[in-house]
Amino acid sequence: MSSTDQGRIFFACCLSLVVTAMTFAIRAGILGELSTEFTFTDTQLGWINSMAFLGFPVATMVGGLIYNHVGAKNLLLIAFVGHVLGLVLTIYSGGFWGLLVSTFCIGFANGSVEAGANPLIADMYHDNKTTMLNKFHVWFPGGIVVGALIAFAMTNMGLGWQLQIAVMLVPTAIYGYLVLTQSFPAMANSEVSTSTNIASLFSPLYVFMLFCMMLTATTELGTQQWVERILGESGAHPMLILAMVTGLMAVGRFFAGPVVHALNPAGVLLFGAVVAAIGIYVMSSASGGMVYVSAILFAVGVMYFWPTMLGFISEYQPKTGALGLSLIGGLGMFSVSIWNPVIGSWIDSAREEALASGLAPEAANLAAGQATLSNLALFPLALVVLFTGLYLYMRKRGHDPEKMEPAGEQPQL
Question: 230: domain CATH number?
Answer without folding.
Answer: 1.20.1250.20
